[in-house]
Amino acid sequence: MKYSLINIFKTFNLKDDIKFNKKNKKLFSGVNTLDKSNINEISFFHNLKYLNDLKKTNAGACFINKKYSKFVPSTCMPIYTNNPYKYFIYTLNFFNPKRISTGKISQNSIVSKNAKLGKNVEIQDGVIIKDGVKIKENSIISSNTVIGQDVTISSNVFIDENCSIFNCNIGKNTKIQSGVSIGSSGFGFAIDELQNINMSHLGKVLIGKDVVIGNNSAIARGSLDDTIISDNVRIDNLVHISHNVKIGKNTIIAGQSGIAGSTTIGKNVIMGGQVGISGHLKIGNNVKIAAKSGIIKNIKNNSTVGGYPAVNIKDWHRATIKLYLNTRNEIRKK
Q1: CA separation for the pair 78, 73 (Å, rounded)
Q2: Which residues, 6+ apart, have CB-to-CB distance to 7 below 8 Å?
Q3: Which entry of 240, 243, 280, 317 is annotated as an active-site residue?
Q4: Closest Cα partner for 288 from 302, 308, 307?
Q5: Which residues span the domain enclosing 56?
Q6: Ranges 3-7, 204-208, 323-327: which has the least confidence
Q7: For a Cys-Cys bond, which of 125, 177, 209, 244 suits 108, CB 3.0-4.6 Å?
Q8: Is there a domain that residue 182 lies in?
């Protein structure tokens, strides 16, 4: 099915963020990259690395900052915006909306008589839902997932296959991808000369709304307090979040990162891949952490850090360059 730009953008609830020729009634069938688009597709340009692709694109329209308009082919209609990637994603989602619940409960699932399911909840094959679970309307629980006792799941939540969900509350519009484990006991024990004494964990995992948790990530329940994942957090694949960790709104955590117990992460933090953060630390708001960094002390608001142990990103770059030059000079002496 094809749509005009006006009909597409009506769904975005826009103000004056986009400028384009509204007299052009051309219809579009989808989106694509600059180099693969055809005349019926919409693309975007936001990185000078792709300037040659822009110059040669066959796209029928392109989200672009106006300062690059001279590079747009005459066959491509420019859509001016200061955030091309953002509006490209909106458009992509328009053509590829998220799946809607069928409302069917599989005969090959096990649902406790004491569980409460809202309207239009979909339960797929092999799902196990235990006593006291509450699932609100339009949520989807995919195959072979286990929902433990007294878990609360809000509306429009999607939980993918083979997940283990215990001791938690999940906010609306949250997406949990395959293989995720939430609410198991954390890595807490006392050490003496004879044995390691495990600690029973009594807390929960509290997950806000509009959160995304990537494949095969693990989030431990709190020991006495709760583990908290705030609204609009994005957690990539293979991330480990330990007991009592608190993550602020809009934080982004890239793959293979780990956060040790009782650490607090502020709002709007961006963590690169394979970052490790020690326990009982405070990471401020708006902090950026370079990939593969190790954090062993508190980080102030608005800092950008990298390396191990992590320091100001400029200091880390200087130290790296100095080490390289010293090593090169030593090799040349030999």
Answers
A1: 9
A2: none
A3: 243
A4: 302
A5: 3-95
A6: 323-327
A7: 125
A8: no
Q: Please give the residue that has the higher pLDDT: either 319 or 295.
A: 295
Is 174 part of a structural domain of the chain? no
Three-class secondary structure of residue 320 per DSSP: helix
Angle at 88 between CA 87 and CA 92, to 5 degrees: 115
Q: How far apart are CA 298 and CA 225, in angstroms?
A: 21
CA distance 123 to 142: 6
pLDDT digits (tens, 9 = 90+) for 213-265: 999 999 999 999 999 999 999 999 999 999 999 999 999 999 999 999 999 99
Q: Note the helical H segments in 71-118.
A: 84-95
Helix, strand, or coil (residue 91): helix
- Provide the domain count of the chain: 1
Active site residue 201: no
Quick one: pLDDT at residue 36?
97
Ranges 19-28, 44-53, 269-278: which has the least confidence: 19-28
The answer to whether the CB of 245 falls within 8 A of the CB of 226 is no
User: How many alpha carbons fall within 13 Å on the CB side of residue 21?
Assistant: 10
CATH number, domain with residue 48: 3.40.1390.10
Residue 304 in this model has a pLDDT that exceeds 90: yes
Residue 136 located in a structural domain:
no
211 falls within a domain: no
Main-chain phi, psi angles of 321, to 5 degrees: -65, -45
Write the CB contacts of 88 (distance below 8 Å, at least 6 apart in sequence). Answer: 31, 42, 43, 44, 63
| Cβ-count burial 285-294 (b if 16+ within 10 Å, e if not) | bbbbbbeebe
> Which residue's structure tokens are 């491509």?
76
